[in-house]
Amino acid sequence: DGGITQSPKYLFRKEGQNVTLSCEQNLNHDAMYWYRQDPGQGLRLIYYSQIVNDFQKGDIAEGYSVSREKKESFPLTVTSAQKNPTAFYLCASMGLELYEQFFGPGTRLTVL
Amino acid sequence: QQQVKQSPQSLIVQKGGISIINCAYENTAFDYFPWYQQFPGKGPALLIAIRPDVSEKKEGRFTISFNKSAKQFSLHIMDSQPGDSATYFCAARLYNQGGKLIFGQGTELSVKP
Predict the structure, then answer these.
(1) Which residues in chain B are contacts of A68 at CB distance < 8 A?
(2) Which residues contact B111 (CB under 8 A, 6 or more apart)?
(3) Closest CA to B29 of B111, B101, B112, B86
(4) What is the mean pLDDT of residues A96-111?
(5) B10-44: string of b/e by CB count within 10 Å (b at 16+)?
(6) Contact B10, A60 (CB under 8 A)
(7) Which candidate in A97, A101, A110 is best for mutational testing of the B interface (most B CBs within 10 A)?
(8) CA-to-CA distance for B112 and B68, rounded, in angstroms?
(9) Can the peptide bond before residue A8 be classed as cis, meaning omega within 30 degrees of 0?
(10) Contact B99 A105 (CB under 8 A)
């Protein structure tokens, strides 16, 4: 079954803690993306990666970090420096010769 | 300007009616305009998309109209059904930034039976 998986589905974090969200794809896509979604707002790009071991900041990268050690995986770390981390986080991937981004099911992060 | 402005924010339509959602942009570096459908608690899924050299694209009950000179595009849902109730996002792709998509703010559509 091809697709994008994100885990966990729900995540609770105490203030001051770092937390890592998982994103895995078996579509053999080169590009991967992390978005943040807040109520009543569109998706905002946090980081993206077009190739292994390389990634670029999106529009709201402050307080987040990523790595791309494998083509299939693009984990996102929400650090304690992120002032308002409670949100719905979406991972997406795309083949570079294509136009469509495929989205995972999302992780809802709540800071207590 | 990389913004994509979407309206209305919410829309209520009777079953069988036409739902119309509009988007506008300013950046001419966009080369692909997709529409995504998102159900609560789920990731967005591509509904239909258009390139700027085409003025209209139709897939089933869903049609995109594209006006390049006005920098506007819209989604029409014909014969709207309660199952179409979802949030719809327009987006635009920057051709020179790794497939980066700029999203509109979203429209919450409710189709009443």
Answers:
(1) none
(2) B12, B13, B14, B15, B17, B19, B80, B81, B82, B83, B84, B85
(3) B101
(4) 89
(5) ebebeeeeebbbbbbbeeeebebbbbbbbeeeebb
(6) no
(7) A101
(8) 33
(9) yes
(10) no
Q: Which of A64, A62, A91 is nearest to A79 (CA)?
A: A64
Per DSSP (E only), the strands in chain B are 4-7, 10-14, 19-25, 33-38, 45-50, 56-59, 62-67, 72-77, 86-93, 101-103, 107-112
Distance CA B14, CA B22 (A): 19
Cα gap B30→A46, rounded to integer Å: 19
Digit-coded pLDDT (tens) for B55-109? 999 999 999 999 999 999 999 999 999 999 999 999 999 877 777 899 999 999 9
- Split at pLDDT 50, 70, 90, the class of A42 is confident
User: Around Cβ A73, how many Cβ atoms within 10 Å?
Assistant: 14
* Alpha-carbon gap, residue A99 to A74, rounded angstroms: 19
B74 touches chain A (CB under 8 A): no
What does the alpha-carbon distance between residue B87 and residue B78 come to, in Å, rounded to a whole number? 16
Structure tokens at B92: 């635009």
